[in-house]
Design brief:
The chain is an alpha/beta fold and about 190 residues long. Helices cover about 55% and strands about 20% of the residues.
Length: about 190
């Protein structure tokens, strides 16, 4: 089984967060207060079901390390991850997991469409249409803020996989993909300005 890991998964896999505590240090007659930097376990999520899905990432990590799941990442996700706080690999549910590199979607689709078009001989017209379609989808996606909801959907799918409920995982994945397909491009976009 192959899965694409996004930043929601990577951020929830980190079960510790940086922490600073002030400590009084005595050295002879001198008493000083110094900051001690370390890590503290993240507080559990308010929603118990959501927390259960986050906890399932330890099982997902084990399944990846056992080569029962192939995990993938791509450049855009990796670059987004650089903005976060400092990482501490020892405190990560995905520690020592092999994550394969997946070409970015535009590269994959451009390669696929170019290969198909070279066979048909209609390279220029279809390439322009394809690029316009991508521009429309990008502009529409910019107006939505789907990250949190998508992360919840991804965690629900992974939670179902981790609990070996493949029928539920398939149903969740089908609903997730169908929703993404519906939101890809709408006629309303063409009536608004970029």
């Amino acid at each position: 089984m192959k899965i694409l890991l996004d930043n929601g998964i990577f951020s929830h896999a980190e079960f510790m967060r940086p922490d600073v505590q002030e400590r009084r240090i005595s050295w002879g007659d001198v008493v000083t207060v110094l900051p001690v930097h370390g890590f503290r376990r993240k507080e559990p999520h308010n929603d118990p079901e959501y927390q259960r899905q986050i906890d399932a990432l330890f099982t997902v990590g084990r399944l990846i390390r056992e080569d029962r799941i192939e995990a993938y990442n791509y450049d855009e996700i990796a670059v987004e991850g650089y903005r976060g706080a400092a990482k501490f690999p020892a405190c990560n549910a995905l520690r020592a997991c092999k994550v394969h590199h997946c070409p970015p979607p535009l590269t994959r689709s451009k390669f696929r469409s170019t290969t198909n078009l070279m066979e048909s001989g209609d390279l220029r017209a279809t390439s322009i249409i394809d690029q316009l379609r991508r521009l429309v989808e990008y502009c529409q996606a910019r107006k939505r803020h789907p990250r949190r909801e998508q992360a919840r959907e991804h965690l629900a799918i992974i939670g179902a996989i981790a609990s070996q409920d493949m029928l539920k995982a398939a149903a969740l994945l089908r609903a997730h993909l169908e929703d993404a397909r519906r939101k890809k491009s709408t006629a309303a976009f063409f009536n608004s300005s970029l």
